[in-house]
Each structure stands twice: as structure tokens, then as C-alpha cells.
Design a protein that fits this description.
The structure is a homotetramer of 268-residue chains. Chain A is built from 10 helices and no strands. About 3% of the residues of chain A have low confidence. Chain A starts with a helix and ends in a 35-residue tail after the last helix. Chain A folds into 2 domains: 120 residues, Four Helix Bundle (Hemerythrin (Met), subunit A) (Up-down Bundle); 94 residues, Orthogonal Bundle (Helix Hairpins). In chain A, 66% of the residues lie in helices and 0% in strands. The first copy, chain A, is an all-alpha fold and 268 residues long. Chains in contact: A-B, A-C, A-D, B-C, B-D, C-D. At the C-D interface, helix 7, helix 8, helix 9 and helix 10 of C face helix 2, helix 7, helix 8 and helix 10 of D.
Chain lengths: 268, 268, 268, 268
């Protein structure tokens, strides 16, 4: 019986076969629409299959519109959904195509559909990834203040080094302004090193060497912060198989122990 | 007495002198054939020694063919070997040369022999590297779910950032399509930074800076995951003060234990 | 009543609302002056708003001069302030503008104001970042000797590899001198890889590969040093299973304790 | 009394003022000679000061020759010194200059003097760096087998990926041979990314993305190995202030405990 309540369950939950199937079909559709948008950006493919891509996009948009209306109709709190992150993303995912009937060049915005892929998180959360995602998330949350401090320090170094390099190298060697020099300093400090701008003067190369060694060494700081946080959170190995002693209630009996190491009672 | 059983032992095991010698000779042959394939790809060397390389390759292929037939004949389960990973690799390692008698341009495939080098793992496993390889392998296996989540997040960032950069910079600055922009985003996020495509607009350079700082910071996540896993697996500190049991010689009595957990004898 | 003592409190402390407001206004002014200096370095913006930027800079300098005089007047130890790090930075932040009335091309020095942004540390220190900053600072201080040793080793590798590459590749392939080769070695070892200078000979490419693998592997050393230091400083694991004492409410009773270590009461 | 024994002490030891002074003067001379060699490689400086550099080099060589003869004369085991690492380095440091009187273009070899800088290790070892150097050295030694396994895996990936890219991109896109492709694979996997060779085909860019993500992720492995090793070696924080209980001899009384947590006895 597909009454409204059952339908709402299918759309909003994913804890039985049908609702799970709905989520997976939806994910495939989103993935398909994103793929079409990506392929459509390749000129040679657009020239050949542009028409097909256009109709596919219309099809996806039609299905997503039905889904959007369904969600508003089924939810008990429509305004809360509409103003939520996923509500806005869902609207933005269909709007550009409708706008493109009246205004040119809005279709590019349909790539915003990529954000809908984040719905995958909901399904993943129900599987074995839940604990792992929580582990990573908690570790990063606990490290947040330290990471902010680190980023603030990095940006200060970038500001000072960018300015210094602008003074040393100057516009004639590609360091056309302080913002560009700061961009170069980030490229260098993060060890990306595009090479679109490079120091040419001996002093500039010396300063660049200092920035590079700095960037090479301070990568240790965020790594250390997150690792220490994760190591702290780990389940200690030997606690994983613990049993209590039936005689003295000592709680540290490990897998493989034959006798309690506190009172000497035999373990079954 | 080189009967079939002894021969099978030599070919498939590597726990005595002769079988070990067989493995080492085989490895030298594989290494030699790979080296010839590599050198053969250098045009100047091919011009001069092309003929020699060709005969060497025929020689190696002949020996590897004998080895392949030997393995099928000696094993008690020939079909299992033929359909196994190494069985397929062994076949692919000799097939291209035979094909090249009839079809042109197949010799390149002989580089697949490089995969045969993985046989080295079998020999390494028997030495002191066994425990170490297990340690690294177990740590990575235990981190697999977390690493998958991390890669999924990275690919989402790459998809969104690639699209954003395609919109900002556009084909006129080298970001010719979303796939190319995504390639650039990976180049930037992983701090590789080839510099074949670089942002030219101020907004593009700003977004690139964000991606670079992101890539610089989130390297901490996989590092943290693997390190925490490895630190967890390390010999726990309290094993360092171990004593042996005077009764059963069990060597795992820890600081603070009152009874041997293997035989129940009181510890002094 | 804004007497001298109260004013000194406002300027030098930041533990009540008014003194905090003073610090925040000061930070906004510093941030504004730095932004103007940055924007002024962009030729197109300078052409259009150069005059505005000039008057803004005069205004900022005027306010900073008042602040500088105020600080000297209010402090009980004026010479100590003048010769302190922030005293010198404060002076250097206003001097260039006054000098520019007499000498040309000194305004660039006003970017030294960026250093004044470090005052933000004082305000941050009072908030939740204090403990975190101490944590990072202490970890780095404790790692200092090890990091120095690491940098010394890196510089030795750079010196030797730079020389070797100069001999192998030579001036005709861009390695014009040993200092330039050492710059290239740093670019390569730190995995920055600008690509402004690249090896062209097979031997040079082989040596470059060695340097790259070395740089890729030894990044583990500073990371390991800092991480081990940070992990050591983390709240020890056994505090996680704490119970409170029923008698004295001491909250640090660990798993396995039989008596409260503060009041000696037996733990159940 | 500068007898032979005292002189030998000054030259070979560095545990009193005079012998320490000798070592420091020697280090300054080595550093000076290396600096001259470096500056001499810069064409513009050589043009101007070439003559001065030449005489300085002669002077340094003269002093190093005296030192070399002194070391042979003073040591009780001259052959052992001559055939030792530093003995060979000391000889190679002076030989090129003498050879240059007869043969041209040998002076470049004088950069081998850089290796003499390693003598600094001897002096450092006596100071506060001894324990730190041992800590890093021991951690790396304990990780050696794991790091070797890691490097072997990396080289296998490089071999396979280099070959695959050579097949995909081919000589027309800069991947002129398998060795060159392997060089490119190392440049990419280690996230150096010179950009001298870059993939142009979509398939090549896809494979490059895979290599980059691989290189970005597996950096976690050596880092994890070394960090876990270093964390294992750390002095645990709470063991630093431990006392034993006077009554029950429990060895875990921490700073700040008032009562033994095992037997409840008051701690003084």
C-alpha cells in the first residue's frame, strides 16, 4: 500500500530494501547527470553528442523536479527542508536548466549537481563506514583549534614572504604585485611548485630556498596534530579481547591467557 | 635423484639451498629480461644493439616457456595455477614474443614481464622481511576503510574544485574542459604542481591557493590514519619489562602480574 | 575617569571590555593599513586609486604615530618598550612614510606593518587558543635540537648533491654554478619542483631520481619527531577511565587503583 | 710542553680547550675552502676574483696537506687512518689541486672537500646533540627493513607505471623511452612535479592522476613507520616522576599523589 507515510519513509529513510533502492537509484541518476555535465564540457564531445546531452539533461532535470516536489509534499516541515543545505542544493540543481530557457549561459551552473553527490554520505553512514567517518571527523574536530592556529601562522609567513619577494624580485621577474607574490609564496610553501613564476636573482633564490625548507619542515605540524589526536583515540590492541576473571573480577584477561594473572584462577 | 616430486619442490618451494638457487636464478633471468626491454625502448641503444636485444629476448622467452610448461606439468592442480595471478602473468610474459612472429608491434607488451618481478616477494617473505611486510600490510588493511573514505572526499573536492576552476578560468587559460580541470585539481591538491596548466586570473589564483593549502593540510589525514594504526601495532611498552615464568618458562610476564597467565604459578 | 593609569591599562592589557575593544580597533587599523599596502602594489589599482591609497596611508600613519607616542608616554619603562621587538616594529611601521617626504622609494618598507599583525597573538593568547598555542610551541621547542640536526643533514645533502649535479649537468643545461645547483637541489629535495631548471642527461636524471626519493622518504623524519613529541604530550590514555573518589571527590582514580591517592580511602 | 703525545691528543680528541680550538679552527678552514670552491663556480665571480680564489685554494691545500701529514705521523696506526673513510676523504681533498699542476680540469674535484664538513659530526657528538642524533639514528636503523620494503614497492610501481606511460603517451609527447618514463614516474610519485615532461592524452592524464593520488597517499607509509618507531622510543610522560611506595614497594607513585593507590600508605 503506497500511502503517503510509506512513501515518505522510502524517500527520507534508508533502512529497508525499498528505501535503500530509492537512494541507490537516486545516486545513479545524480552520478549520471554529473557525468553528462562533465562530458558536455569537452568541446569535441559536445560537437558530436551535444543534442543527446541536452535531452539527457532535460530528462534528469525532470526527474529531479519530481523528486524535489515529492520531498516538499512528503515532509512534515516543508519550510525546514526548503531552507536546509540539501533543500537549497536540490533547488539549485534544477533551477539552471529552467532558467536556460529564458537566459543564455546558465547551464554551467548545473554542475552544482555535483554537490548532490554528498547525499552518498547518508547511505555510507549506515554501513561499515559510520564508525570510521566518525573517527576521522572527531579527530579533525578535536584538532580544529590547533589547525586554525597553524593556518594563521602559515598565512602570516605567506604575507611576509610574499612582500619580501615582491621587493627583492619585483615586477620585471614576474612578481607583478604583492597578491601575486603571496600566491607564489603559497605555491612554494605548500611544495606545489608550478613554476609559472620563479625567482631569478641570487637573493630571491636564497629566500625561496628558505621558504621551501620551511614548507618542507612545517608540514610536520598539521600531521603531528592530527596523528597525535588519532593515536589518542585508537582502541588499544590488548583491550580488544578482554574478559573478566570469574574469581577476582580482574578485567584484564587477554586472549590466550590460561590463568588470571592477579589471583591465579584458571580461565575457561 | 631428480624425480618429479623433488623437481616440484625445487620449483615451488624456496626453503632449501637448491630451491632457493632456482628462485634466485629465475629472478636474475626476469631482471635481465626486464632490463633488456627497458634498454630496447631507448632509440639510440636500439639502433646500435637492436639485433642483440632481439636474440636475448628470444632466449629469455625460450627459458620462460620451459619454466611455464614445467610449472604446469609439476603442479598437482594445473588449472588452478593457470588461472592464478602468477599463472596469467607467466603466460602474458611469453605470449607477446610468439605473437610478434605473426602480428607487428606486440613486443611492447613484453614489459608485462616486470610483473613477474613480484615473485621476489615470495623469496623476501622467507627472510627477515616477512614480519615487516606483514606489519605494513596489516596496518594498511586495517586502515583501508578510512583511506577509502579519504579518497572519496578527495575526489569530491577534485570534482567541485575542477568544475569551479573551469568556470573561473575557462578554455582560454588552458582549462579546456572539466576533466582537464579535474586533472589540474589533482595535480594541485597532491602538491605535484607540474605547471603545464596554471591559473592566470586573480580569482583563479585565489581558488588555487585554497586548493593548495587544503592539499597541504589534508595530507595529515592519511598519514595520521596509517601512523595511528602502526603505533597501535607496535610492541606495547609494557612488554619491555617482561620476565620469564620460573615454572613454565613463558616469556610474557608483565610488570604487575602476580601469577603466570599460562601455568598459574605465583610470580615472585 | 580616564586618568593615566586607566589609559595604560586600556593600551597594554586586554582583560576587560574597553581594553579589548582598543586592541580590536587597533587590529582592524593594522589589517586595513596592510590591505592598502597590498592593493597599492597592484599596478592597475594604483593607477586608479593611487591618490586614495596615499591619503589612507597618511591617515593610518598618523593614528599609529599617536599610538606609538601614547605607548612611550604611558609605559613605566619607556626605554624597555622602545628597544623591545614590538617597539622597533611599531617605529618601523611609521618611519617609512615620514622618510618618503624627503627620500623616494621608501614607502615599500611600510609593508613591515604586516609584522604588527603579530599583535593578534596577544589577543588570541587570552582566548581558547592559549593552551593550543602552548601545546604546539612546547612540542616544537622540545623538538628543536632534533630539527636542527635534521636541517643540518639536509643542507649537507644539498651541498653534496648540488655540487655533483653541477659537475654532471654543467652550465649548458642550466646548472650555471654551484649555488644555483644547490638552489635546484633544495627545490627537488623539498618536492617543490618548479621546473625552471631540470636535468637533461641520463646520469643527471638518475641522480635527480635519487634526490627525489630521498626527499620523499626523509620528510618522515621531521614529521616523526614532531608527532612523537605531540603524542607524548597528549592526555595519557589511562585518564580516560577515571572515577571520582566517594570520600574526597578527587576525579583522578584510574582503572586498577585500590586506594584514592589523595585521601587514602579504599576504592570499591 | 708540546710533545708528540700532547699533539696527538690535540689533533684526535676534542675534550679540552686546546683540542676543541684545533677542531674549530679546522672546521673554519674547511668551511672557508668549501665556500671558495662554491664561489669559484660562479662565472662572474671567477672572472673578477679568479686569481684570489686560486691563491686561497693553494693556501687551504697547503694547510690541509700539513694536517694530513700530521695525522699520519701522530697516529699509532697510520695504515688504518689512511684506509679509513676520513683518511681517504682527507687525501682526496688535497690531491686534485696537486694534480691540477699537471692535468687540466681536475680542480672541480676539490668540491670533495665538502665531505670533510662531516667532521663537524665529531664535535657535535660531544655536545647536547649526541642523544638526539642517537635517537634519530636508532629510529631509522630500526625502521631500515620496513623502509627498504617500501622503496622496493615504490620502484616496482615506478617500473610498471613508467612502462605503461611510455606505451600510452609515447615518444611524440616527451616520453622518449622507458628510462625517461620511469624518471617521470618518480618525479610524479614523489610529488616533485617538474613539468619538463607532462601527459597530453586524456588516458595519460588519467593514469598520471592515479600515480599522483598514489604518491600522495603512500607518503603515509614511511612517515608512519618512522613515527611509530620514534613514538615507541619516547620516554613516557608519567614515568618521569615515579617514586616507589615505602610500604608495599608499588613503583607507580606519581608526582602529586598523597597516598599509595595500591595499599593506601601515606606518601611523604
Amino acid at each position: 500500500m503506497l500511502d503517503k507515510k510509506r512513501l515518505a519513509h522510502i524517500v527520507f529513510e534508508s533502512n529497508d530494501r525499498v528505501s535503500r533502492l530509492f537512494d541507490i537509484v537516486l545516486l545513479i541518476l545524480i552520478f549520471g547527470s554529473v557525468t553528462v555535465a562533465i562530458l558536455d564540457s569537452v568541446q569535441s564531445l559536445k560537437d558530436e553528442y551535444g543534442q543527446t546531452f541536452y535531452y539527457l539533461e532535460l530528462g534528469f532535470t525532470f526527474l529531479f523536479t519530481i523528486e524535489y516536489i515529492l520531498r516538499i509534499w512528503l515532509t512534515t516541515k516543508p519550510y525546514k527542508y526548503i531552507s536546509s543545505f540539501f533543500g537549497i542544493v536540490d533547488l539549485l540543481a534544477i533551477l539552471p536548466v529552467y532558467l536556460s530557457f529564458f537566459v543564455a549561459n546558465t547551464q554551467l551552473l548545473s554542475v552544482i549537481r555535483a554537490l548532490r553527490l554528498l547525499r552518498i554520505v547518508r547511505i555510507l553512514k549506515l554501513g561499515r563506514y559510520l564508525a570510521e567517518a566518525d573517527f576521522i571527523g572527531d579527530s579533525l574536530k578535536a584538532s580544529a583549534a590547533k589547525i586554525q592556529l597553524f593556518l594563521f601562522s602559515v598565512l602570516t609567513i605567506v604575507l611576509i614572504m610574499g612582500t619580501v619577494m615582491f621587493v627583492i624580485e619585483g615586477p620585471e621577474h614576474g612578481f607583478t604585485s604583492i597578491p601575486v607574490s603571496m600566491y607564489w609564496a603559497i605555491v612554494t610553501l605548500t611544495t606545489v611548485g608550478f613554476g609559472d613564476i620563479t625567482p631569478s636573482t641570487p637573493l630571491g633564490q636564497f629566500m625561496a630556498s628558505v621558504i621551501m625548507l620551511l614548507g618542507y619542515a612545517i608540514i610536520a605540524v598539521p600531521t603531528g596534530i592530527v596523528t597525535a589526536e588519532m593515536a589518542k583515540r585508537k582502541t588499544p590492541r590488548h583491550y580488544e579481547f578482554l574478559k573478566s576473571c570469574t574469581h577476582c573480577s580482574f578485567e584484564g584477561i587477554e586472549l590466550g591467557d590460561s590463568y588470571c594473572r592477579k589471583c591465579g584462577t584458571k580461565v575457561d
